[in-house]
Each structure stands twice: as C-alpha cells, then as structure tokens.
C-alpha cells in the first residue's frame, strides 16, 4: 500500500482550502486500490478539511506537534487536540531545522497520543535512531525541494541508491520536488513506499494525477 501525502506547508487561505477540498472530493479516484491518501493542511484548516473530506477515505495529518502533553504552553498544540481531526503528523521536516533530540521527543508525543508520525530525515544513518513501531519515515532531499513552484531535475539513480541502502523492514516514503513528471519513475523504485508531495499538491488535479500513478 503506497502512502501519498500532500504537505500544503504554509499555503492557502480558508477560501482556497475550501475550494481545493471541494474539488478534490469530486475528482479523487474511487476506489483506491493500492494507495492511501493523506492531506496535511495548515493547522487552522484541519477542522474545515476534516468536514469536507469526511467519509472519502482520505486521512488528515498535522504539520507539527507540541513536545508537551498539555498545560500552560502558549501557542502550542498537543496531540490530544490534533487527534480529533487527524491520524498522522509530519515532524522533523528540513524546513524546520530541528535537532534529532527534538524530533525524537515529537515522535514519542505522537505515539503516546495515538498519532502516526511521518518523520522526515535526510541522512540514512538516522534511520535506526528514528525508527520505532508505528512510525513512517520520509526520506527528504533538501537540495531538491521545489522553490516557488519550480521543480528541480531529479537524479533517479541517486534516489534509487539511497533507497537501496535503507533497511528493508522500514516503511520509507520520498519527498523532494515530487510531481506528475517524475512520479512514474519514482513509483518503480524498489523500497519506496510512497511520496510526500509539496508544491504539486496545491493543485488538486496535479495531486490526483500523482495518486493515479502510484495506485496502478
């Protein structure tokens, strides 16, 4: 089962998010045979997207979680609050520049709250440190993350080499300028269990085309 995750990052107004979800609900392939779809909107849009995509089979993810369980932590959002709307949480993305220690604390915060962490990493040596039962890993390529809608050229052989070095028992997806042009090649890489889609996921039609490629 391939995991296709849309990471919206800090994009879309409330109106744009509603338009996206409404359109996506209309065009998402039904039924999905070989893939699970996850959407990670901005925190403020989680309740809205949850309502629009309810009973579509699409799961939601948060883009971060507090280190703390609950209490006097202004500005923080805990796992017990997130789990009302989502089952997954992206943590450790390279854009956040967090330490491994912080990522591990957030991993455990997810697991103790009943959320599945999608842990981003860019160094294969961290796999065994980050891995734990109930965890999904996302191998990032920080040099290949799209900027302002511009996708960078992929070195598919390099990505294949990265995944060939990963432990076979670990579920690892890939993130780095994923789009409809490179998705067919990525879908055939051994050990690649899905993708974390950034800029391309902001267009519901583009995202659906990526889903269809992996769901074959």
* CATH level 3 topology: TIM Barrel
CATH level 4 superfamily: Aldolase class I
* Class of secondary structure makeup: alpha/beta
Residues in helix, %: 25-40%
Let me know the average pLDDT. Answer: 93
Instruction: Please state roughly what percent of the residues sit in beta strands, choosing from under 5%, 5-15%, 15-25%, 25-35%, 35-45% or over 45%.
Output: 15-25%
Count of distinct structural domains: 1
Rg, alpha carbons: 16 Å
Strand order of the largest sheet: 1-2-3-4-5-6-7-8
Major β-sheet profile: 8 strands, parallel, barrel
The SSE order reads: EHEHEHEHEHEHEHEH
Can you describe this structure?
- The protein is α/β, with parallel strands linked by helices and 216 residues long.
- The protein has a single domain, classed as Aldolase class I (TIM Barrel, Alpha-Beta Barrel).
- Helix content is 31%, strand content 19%.
- It has eight helices and eight strands; from the N terminus they run βαβαβαβαβαβαβαβα.
- It has helices at 14-27, 46-52, 79-82, 100-112, 127-130, 156-164, 183-186, 204-214, and strands spanning 2-7, 35-40, 59-62, 88-91, 116-121, 136-140, 172-175, 192-197.
- An eight-stranded parallel beta barrel has the order 1-2-3-4-5-6-7-8.
- The radius of gyration is 16 Å and the shape is globular.
- The termini are close together.
């Amino acid at each position: 089962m391939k995991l296709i995750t849309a990471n919206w990052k800090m994009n879309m107004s409330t109106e744009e998010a509603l338009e996206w979800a409404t359109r996506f609900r209309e065009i998402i392939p039904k039924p999905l045979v070989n893939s699970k779809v996850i959407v990670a909107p901005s925190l403020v849009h989680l309740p809205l997207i949850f309502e629009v995509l309810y009973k579509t089979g699409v799961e939601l993810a948060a883009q971060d979680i507090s280190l703390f369980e609950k209490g006097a932590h202004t500005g923080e959002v805990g796992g017990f609050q997130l789990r009302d709307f989502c089952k997954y949480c992206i943590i450790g993305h390279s854009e956040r520049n967090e330490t491994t220690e912080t990522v591990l604390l957030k991993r455990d915060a997810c697991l103790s709250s009943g959320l599945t962490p999608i842990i981003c990493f860019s160094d294969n040596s961290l796999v065994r440190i980050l891995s734990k039962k109930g965890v999904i890993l996302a191998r990032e390529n920080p040099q290949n993350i799209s900027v302002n809608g511009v996708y960078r050229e992929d070195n598919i052989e390099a990505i294949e080499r990265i995944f060939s070095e990963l432990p076979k028992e670990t579920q690892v997806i890939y993130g780095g300028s994923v789009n409809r042009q490179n998705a067919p090649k990525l879908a055939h890489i051994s050990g690649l269990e899905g993708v974390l889609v950034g800029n391309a996921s902001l267009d519901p039609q583009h995202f659906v085309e990526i889903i269809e490629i992996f769901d074959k």
